[in-house]
Amino acid sequence: MHKMLIGGQWIHAKDGGSLPVSNPSDGQVFDSISRGGAHEIDLAVKAARAALSGPWGAMSLTDKGRILVKISQKILDHEEELTQLEARDTGKPITTARNDIKVLARYFEFYGTAADKIHGEVIPFVNGHQVSLIREPLGVTAHIIPWNYPAQMLGRTVAPALAVGNATVLKPAEDTSLSALRVAELALEAGLPPGVLNVVTGLGEEAGAALAAHPGINFISFTGSNEVGTLVQQAAAKNAVKCVLELGGKSPQIVFDDVDVGRAVPIIVRAIVQNAGQTCTAGSRLLVQRTIFDSFVGKVAEAFAKVKVGTPEMDHDCGPVMNPAQYARVNRYINQARESGVPVLAEGTLATGLSPSGYFVKPTLFGPVPRNHALACEEVFGPVLSAMPFEDEADAIALANGTDYGLLAAVWTENAGRLQRVAKAVQAGQVFMNCYGAGGGVELPFGGTKRSGHGREKGMLALEELSSCKTLVHYHG
Ligand code: NAD
What we know:
- By secondary structure, this protein is of the alpha/beta class.
- It contains 16 helices and 24 strands.
- The chain folds into 2 domains: 266 residues, Aldehyde Dehydrogenase, Chain A, domain 1; 190 residues, Aldehyde Dehydrogenase, Chain A, domain 2.
- The strands form 7 sheets. The chain has a 7-stranded mixed β-sheet, sandwiched between helices.
- Helix 3 runs antiparallel to helix 5 and helix 3 crosses helix 7.
- The longest helix is centred in the N-terminal third of the chain and has 21 residues.
- It binds nicotinamide-adenine-dinucleotide.
- Nicotinamide-adenine-dinucleotide binds next to helix 8 and helix 9.
């Protein structure tokens, strides 16, 4: 059984509790983790607080950054091991898992090299005064992450927190804690002082809820479902703790009749089947101008039918979905859509020889999907693409903005003016023009509008979210 890392010590849960770790490709248990709860969260928050008054607190930002860069190198030195671990834990294809590990390393590199480049400002004020703004760490930051991109999520939220000098408590998802534990071990080896990164494994309703409600934290970053995001925000509000929420999405690909078909089709297919559709930024709605709906969606269907699903080792386009609950959820959406008469335009194929107890789902393209159908508005979080026609620019914008979500969008047209108009009118945190970046872009500020959440991660903006601004006013006469 894997222990947790608290204050530089590897410990089991006080009550000896454990949780099984299963392989999504065959449903078999292959390992176990400690089931931490309120007690372990309390220890971790105290360890993080103590670390802020230890060597970490006294260290220059340059030296903090150097440690992060060393962590990045350690991750790259263990790329193969971490790739295998992540692929087994999540079921994703080896190539996807390898990319996730490279992105994890990139987060530590990006934020490690940014650590001493967060400059303050000087503000003109009443004569005789010097006013400057400096940025300070928030203190103890809490991070609750989901199971879809465990390694990337760790890098995305923990690396910037450390770069500005916070001490962190991480609660990985119960299904996928293995890479977080291994990265924490590598971080210690790279010289990160004890207590600066604490990893408490356990259930969301136990360890996660205890972390969100702990009065000793100063910030919480949550990535996951809307339901839990609301609970986390409520818990944080009771302690007046700042909260960044990265929640769900129903991101539109908006395709006009002058699209570069050859460029768009493979990117659109990839943006929904990547990670078996379990990507918050998956392009799950294909909105196509009616004049080319049949021809364009036909091309997408041809490419979609070639999508293959298999085990990590087979390294096809996608792997199984994560767990039995996810398997049931995705199949429920697919079956209900079929039963309600929405046409299936294409299906991917399952590789031969897959375990019948693995959570493999056939990627499915539906269309035309009625505008008020569940598939048009709700996040499936699986490899399901909903094609829908629109009439003109105004209709495209209305349709694109017609869900509760606002995470990503893409606009496909060769008309430069239309690209700009539509990109500006679409409600989303990121808009891609003639390209798409599901999950990509360490350098690019990222986050939602509407029910997709608030606050920004990634890029230099994350460093502002994870620090506070102090105004210094000096009367010098
Ligand atoms: P989830 O909300 O069930 O779990 C996310 C994390 O929250 C896990 O670590 C879990 O243990 C923890 N948790 C569960 N209950 C909790 C509670 N009561 N208090 C505190 N923590 C708790 O979500 P999931 O099923 O792991 O992920 C799927 C959802 O996440 C999808 O809706 C997806 O769109 C969203 N997501 C969003 C992003 C983004 O960046 N916007 C990224 C990935 C996933």
